[in-house]
Amino acid sequence: MSSDLDRYLHDNDRRIHDELFELLRIPSVSARSEHAGDVRRAADWMRDSLARIGFDASINETPGHPIVLGEWRKAPGAPTVLVYGHYDVQPAEPLELWESPPFEPTVRDGRIYARGSVDDKGQLFLHVKALEAHLAVRGTLPVNVLVLAEGEEEVGSENLAQFIASNAKRLAADAVVISDSSMFAPGQPSILSSLRGLAYFQIDVVGPTVDLHSGSYGGAVVNPATALARIIASFHDVNGHVAIPGFYDAVRDWGDDARAGIRQLPFDERGFQHETGAPALGGEAGYSTLERIWTRPTCEINGLLSGYTGEGAKTVLPSKAMAKVSCRLVPDQTPEAIGRLMEAHIQRVAPTGVTVTIQHLHGGHPWRAELAGPVFDAARRALEGAFGRAPVIVGEGGSIPVVGDFQRILGTPVLLMGFGLPGENAHAPNEWMSDENFVVGTRAVASFWDEMARG
Ligand code: BES
Ligand code: MN
Ligand code: MN
User: Fold this and answer.
1) pLDDT (tens digit, 9 = 90+) per residue, 383-423?
2) Most exposed: 21, 72, 364, 406, by fewest CB within 10 Å?
3) Which residues contact 331 (CB under 8 A, 6 or more apart)?
């Protein structure tokens, strides 16, 4: 282990935390236009923090939020690694459920509580500090490094694929490294083998032009809420399979090795259920919980809106109904093909007497890792060195839209080593990052660069 880097990180621990807290105080909520100025402030902050450690750092405008690019290319002949992360965060609402304010980082029980602490500011920032340790202690890096930080991940990375495609030469790299995911369990470093993709829809059903008296009109006018309920009930059969025709056509078999690997993981199903608070787990028949989350596509209602939802009873036939629906995708499903299947299905099942429209909100491609080559070997050694335990290979049910794009557009292999933990409340009130994981993760990433140099 490289004690010089560890000592530097230890000696600077206080300042490093102060800096992280500064970043966490910026409410860079990409989804809300009133925070556009804060998103830009976080971008500027990232650029300055990269410039301060010796990177050429720039702000790159997009039609949406800016992309920060840091470049250090002073190792001619050595490989080039691109580090990706996002500095935008999810909205913090509902605010009343936070035990400390979302944009006032607070340490309790070894956890850093703040919106964005683990997703993804803490995990992005620890890469910058690992790079700083090398440059401060040794004045150099063993490989060429690019840092790409975007401000639109939480709203679907709409402008990033375009930026990558038109800057393909500048972004050419031998590997992409990302920390924007979680470890399987505390103390158990983990490398991701897959991410699901995403196809997100909004379905609007409109009937009468205004709400109607449900006595005077009910039974003679098609109820948009009932129509929508019938549409979304048609998405699954009784065994939990998605019943949209053609939905599974492109699904590639996961393979026996991967399935055996999943079975070998010490998954605490009871603990997982407990964490959700749900009275029982449930899903597609014939698959285990981890298989359902990691290897199977889904079609889930994310939001429903219609009619009277206030106190007491109001006898009313609503004029419209709306649902937000997301399909999580697995290789080789594509958001485009699933969008076409969804549209055809809805046309088929939509009752007459209402108008049904479907909007495609965003999408991302699924991804499966190669898990071979010098970058993975370096990550394995670095993680084992820092955590004292060999990493496990895990799947992931969430999505990082750009990962598939890196593979498709640049042809670059992607390594995902995350330092989050189960129960970290990403996207929810009281998001936290384990401070130990922040510290050990920084050390692991610092030693990752050394392991890369060893080849
Ligand atoms: N960091 C997450 C992806 C993730 C989720 C990794 C869970 C590991 C565990 C990312 O920031 C995220 O939230 N992605 C969104 C994508 C969407 C907004 C396009 C997701 O998965 O919902
Ligand atoms: Mn994230
Ligand atoms: Mn997220």
Assistant:
1) 999 999 999 999 999 999 999 999 889 999 999 999 999 99
2) 21
3) 194, 251, 252, 366, 367, 368
